[in-house]
Amino acid sequence: MLDPLSSSFSLNTGSSAANSARNSIFLSAVSLNENEVEKPDMKSNYQQKIFELTESVGFGVIIFVFIFINTIVISFEVSEESDRYYGYYLQSIDSICVGIFILELFLRIFAWRTKFFNSWWHTFDLFLVILSLTTIILPHISITFQSPNVLALIRMARSLRIIRTVRTLGKFQFVKSIKMIIDTLMHSVQAMSVILFVSVIVFYIYTVLGVLAFSKVDPYRFQSLSSSYVVFLQVLSLDLWSDTAIDNKQVAPGMLYMFYSFIIIQAFVLLNLLTAVIVDNLAALRKNIGHHMKKSKKWVR
């Protein structure tokens, strides 16, 4: 006869193992840490040399220099005065940098082949290169993208390339910590988006409830959804929200309890859920990295 405690323990153990396996699959599906990505199969000496070149420290430092230069150029291009006097030179430097990034991308694709997309950093590089080509090509073929505001927005989006320096300087302990934080946040996007979606729904429900319940009591603050939204945004920030409750304490005592429930749900429950997701993914990522490091040490031995 089975002991209920032992059967319960076995079920929990199985569940825990399943969760660990699920986390391992999730973390290795699209890896943010290049050390975790399975290395490509070398089909030729030429591919091996290209792979060693693109993964070398010297190559990373060169790319880092061009990223830094490109980021500075993008910041100058936003200024109308700089663009007026030095526009030709800035565009020339920008085109050279984009050419270097395209060459780097082709070299990495050639070296990694089909496993290129297993790394989030590689996908991020591809996205930025496409974005760079967009700012160069589209103004010549589309009137819509000739707007300076649209082009400035796309150029500023390209400044996200500076994030790549974290990967290049990953050998330093301080930068490794930053990289792990970025990796953790990217792994948490899916769960965080669900929590934020629930938060938006709760926010909308309370905004509508405020208009329906207190539009006649306090028409200045709850006359419309937009004004009610501003009130609950103030409540969420925990800044001077008590003034609204005190002003309506005599005519609408229930307003204070509505604010209390909103704060508990949004500021405590959902915010703590976000924190728990990030902490859990950080622990899973550290465990996964430690597992890969042990496997590497065994392989070296």
Description:
This protein is mainly alpha-helical and 301 residues long. The chain is 80% helix and 0% strand. The protein is built from 13 helices and no strands. Helix 3 packs antiparallel against helix 4 (80-112) and helix 3 runs antiparallel to helix 6. The longest helix is centred in the last third of the chain and has 47 residues, at 254-300. The chain is elongated, with a radius of gyration of 26 Å.
What is the averaged pLDDT score?
A: 75
Low-confidence stretches: 1-32
Output the number of helix runs: 13
Shape: elongated
Summarize the structure.
It is built from 13 helices and no strands. The chain is mostly helical and 301 residues long.
Please specify the SSE layout and strand pairing.
Elements: H1 4-29, H2 45-54, H3 57-78, H4 80-112, H5 120-141, H6 148-158, H7 164-168, H8 173-187, H9 189-214, H10 219-222, H11 225-236, H12 241-247, H13 254-300
Helix pairs in contact: 2-4, 3-4, 3-6, 4-5, 5-6, 8-13, 9-11, 9-13
